[in-house]
Design a protein that fits this description.
The chain has 9 helices and 8 strands. The chain is an alpha/beta fold. It has an 8-stranded parallel β-sheet. Strand 1, helix 1 and strand 2 form a beta-alpha-beta unit. Helix 3 runs parallel beside helix 4, helix 4 packs parallel to helix 5 and helix 8 packs across helix 9. The chain binds zinc ion. Zinc ion binds next to loops.
């Protein structure tokens, strides 16, 4: 079996089987500006066949859409405003986001949610911005891409006030919570996005036993690049920048924790991502 992380990179190499989908990559980030095409080539060589680019502000949502249009069928976008930027969500931007959310390459509304860990925006502003974006998801009939940190109670309360948004599906991206939080999310029908946080021996260990609790059809994989480079990745890139080609490393850790083969997890997580985001099938 070819191991993508050790195989030499061959331009145009056929994808490693089975395919993976990175459901959370900040590909518009300026750290990718100098070599974005090489990043995409390495992703393809590592069998990461499709990616959902996170839009987290007006600017990054536009950038995510622009990149997706340049790589049809491979790249897709979300359009939204991260809780850090909640104060930017004016009535005018709500209208603009709804227009963006209607474009075909946009497969989810968000990144939206609550972040009481950093508190970069006032909490009442965060709650309002979150609700406004769930309402966009309800109107356009697309899933929601959710962020939550240190705000579980309010997050769940606002989601429960928007059952029609939940009906179109939603993913708790970069899940780092505890068993009770996972239980609540699964109870609401959320998909769960797992990043390389789980590879962090200082703060991700608690996630390992939770992996068996997530039904295979609800478990999604993401790098959240350029952030969250898996701490146990060897060798580490000199840049310390994370990228989609490292997704199979995350998959291996999650598969081990679930007691299953990585190929099995690749199959199930790819199918789950396609179902949530209505992505076309490519091999
Ligand atoms: Zn996030």
């Amino acid at each position: 079996m070819t191991d993508a992380s050790t195989a030499p990179f061959l331009p145009g190499a056929t994808a490693v089987s089975p395919a993976l989908i990175d459901i959370g990559i900040n590909l518009g980030h300026d750290s990718y500006d100098s070599d974005r095409d090489a990043v995409l080539a390495r992703a393809a060589a590592a069998g990461v066949v499709q990616m959902v680019i996170t839009g987290s502000s007006r600017e990054s949502s536009h950038k995510a859409i622009e990149l997706s249009r340049a790589h049809p069928g491979v790249l897709f976008a979300t359009a939204g405003v991260h809780p850090h930027h909640a104060t930017e969500l004016t009535a005018e931007l709500v209208v603009q986001l709804e227009t963006l959310a209607c474009t075909p390459v946009v497969v989810a509304v968000g990144e939206c949610g609550l972040d009481y860990f950093r508190d970069y925006s006032p909490r009442d502003t965060q709650r309002a911005a979150f609700a406004r974006q769930l309402e966009i998801a309800e109107r356009v009939g697309k899933p929601a891409f959710l962020h939550q940190r240190d705000a579980h109670e309010d997050f769940v309360a606002i989601l429960r006030e928007h059952p029609r948004a939940l009906a179109f599906g939603a993913v708790a991206h970069c899940f780092t919570g505890n068993a009770a939080e996972l239980d609540a999310y699964l109870g609401m029908g959320l998909w769960i996005g797992i990043t390389g946080w789980i590879c962090d021996e200082r703060r991700g260990q608690h996630l390992l036993p939770l992996m068996r609790e997530i039904p295979a059809d609800k478990l999604l994989l993401e790098t959240d690049g350029p952030y969250l480079l898996p701490r146990d990745l060897k060798p580490k890139p000199a840049s310390r920048r994370n990228e989609p080609a490292f997704l199979r490393h995350v998959a291996r850790t999650v598969a081990r924790a679930r007691g299953e083969e990585v190929d099995q997890l690749a199959h199930s997580s790819t199918a789950a991502a396609r179902r949530l985001f209505s992505l076309p099938e490519i091999t």
